Amino acid sequence: MTLIAILLATLAAGIGSVWLAALLGFGVLARYTQHMLSLAAGALLATAFMHLLPEAFETQVAAHNLFMTLLGGLIFFFLLDKAELWHHGHEHHQEVHSDPTDAHEHDSTHLHAAGLHAHGHPSPSAQAGAWAVLTGDSVHCFGDGVLIASAFMANMRLGVIAALAVLAHEVPHHMGDLMVLRGGAGNKHVALVKVSIAGAVTALGGLVGYWLVDRLQDYLPFFLVVASSSFVYVALADLIPQLQTRLTARETAAQIAWLLVGIVLVTAVSSLAHAH
């Protein structure tokens, strides 16, 4: 029963987030991207601080060891982020320093960033970048699957909450992937299929996580803390900084409202799962 729940939840989080991202990115709901970022940040923080961490600290493991794991997890994800951002940062550095007064160079730079030659065909660098995105996305989704499985092994309610949080934070992430792959392939349907396949790797991670955590029950609290560190890092280092722009009072209120919606949504799902 637990294995079936893990498979269903990982598929919903992995592939469902891709389709929702496509709806937001390619459809009429594209203007709500900022709201999704706020909602995802609230869902991740609520899941980490209100569910995963309390579950881990209710065990007999020393609090000092769990806090050390939390700190180590945050540093680990920071280093992973630095390793990934070095390549992208180098490309953006070149783009920023192009001459803004030269309209032709400016347009060419943006065409190249979108993965297109002047004739509208995918550039070789864009195709290579697309494969890099897919590879990184697959690894990330595999890790999400392991984290969801860890939560389900603790209890069913926690697994549902973790799957919801993963789905929420993967939507804006997949929106970026779809834009990159659409530029490389020139076809949004091909991009959607490729990213969906990468999202399906979440289920593979769930299977591995089920096998791994089932044999390492004593280490389950540490798995939960690592999952928490992942959620906290993504929320504070990736999502919230994208929201820290100059906005009107009304737009700021909307951000806060959607952040609270994310927290309330996680709490409501927790209550429903607990009731059942």
The N- and C-terminal alpha carbons lie at a distance of 15 Å
Radius of gyration: 20 Å
How many independent structural domains? 1
Strand content: under 5%
Uncertain stretches of 5 or more adjacent residues: 86-126
From the spread of the alpha carbons, the general shape counts as globular
> How many strands in all?
0
Helix content: over 70%
- Topology as a string of helices (H) and strands (E): HHHHHHHHH
Counting helices, strands and paired strands, the structural category is mainly alpha
Largest sheet: none
Helical element count?
9
Secondary-structure topology with pairs:
Layout: H1 2-26, H2 33-57, H3 63-96, H4 103-113, H5 124-154, H6 156-185, H7 188-215, H8 220-243, H9 249-275
Helix pairs in contact: 1-5, 1-6, 1-7, 2-6, 2-8, 2-9, 3-8, 5-6, 5-7, 5-8, 6-7, 6-9
Commentary on this structure:
It is a single chain. The protein has nine helices and no strands. The chain has 276 residues and is mostly helical. The protein has one domain. Helix 3 packs parallel to helix 8 (220-243). The relative contact order is 0.21. Mean pLDDT is 76; it is low at 86-126.
Summarize the structure.
The chain has 276 residues and is an all-alpha fold. The chain has 9 helices and no strands.
Task: Name a few traits of the molecule.
276 residues, mainly alpha, globular
